[in-house]
Amino acid sequence: MIAFSRRVAQWQRAEGRHTLPWQNTHDPYRIWLSEIMLQQTQVATVIPYYERFLAQFPTVADLAVADEEAVMALWAGLGYYTRARNLHACARRIMSDWGGRFPPTAAEIETLPGIGRSTAAAIAAFAYGERSPILDGNVKRVFARHFGIEGDPSKRAVEQRMWAIAQAEVPPEGPEAADEMRRYTQGLMDLGATLCTRGDPDCGQCPVRDTCVALREARQHELPTPRVRKAVPERHTRMLVIEKAGEVLLQRRPSPGIWGGLWSLPEFDDGDALAACRVLGVAPAETVRLPTFSHTFTHFRLHVEPWHVQAGPVALKDGAGNPPQIWMPTAEVEGAALPAPVKKLLQGLFRRGGLL
Question: Out of 35, 110, 180, 243, which one is annotated catalytic?
Fold first, then answer.
């Protein structure tokens, strides 16, 4: 039987994905950027963000000297904003500690901000042909089914078993090892994304179906073992859309934290909108409650009750303990670094009012 890695690599050459914008390059900057954006985000969503980001910051040096707000504005809507802050910090580290060149090994890449073991290995494989195994979510699903690995892959013991298999299955050394490693790494990603999918695996087209434990035992929908789902906590907050003369009041979100570093609407939990406005130094001329909306994060669901406030006289209370605040022209909302649900709320509101 041909080795597992060889079958995956051969399939990738013939049937895998070859036209994604971050493929067909050995540039570690472009590879790194794509790997970070693809964490917990689908390819179709990432592509336009990736292209806009590269147009603005074509090199790691450009990213390193960029203003954080410009970085966050380009990331806004992609979610998991810690990735963007780590990306920026990582670029600066590469410039300061590595002379502007990406570290040459997976072990060294892993020391950079926001880069874990699997991501470091993927960058090293694609950029340098290093024989380091990957183990992202798609690969865990492929391994669980093919090798018949039971247990929750997020548990340490199960994950360590998968890492051992991942290491054992890397292509062997040889004159074509670098290309084979790139093909194999991409092939594992392609298998998980296109054939060995979560809900409807296409086993008939799989290049390793002849040795797949799950297929042989008809357990494709049992493996990987589902994690025990906990009830999603519910949180509630209220937001103020304070508007005056074609501008809206925004506050900088604290970092770390949800939406950290982005501009968002002032929030309040206690009392009413009038009292919250007075705390900010705003005298409302008119206050209207808007429809509640919800946004689901990884670990909880947030329910937001927004209030639209037409501001009268304003004397904002800046100072110690208060977040930075700005008045942003409503025409600039679309291009600003705002959380996606907040931007959607403002766009809908101001378009209806003819202000966008």
Answer: 35
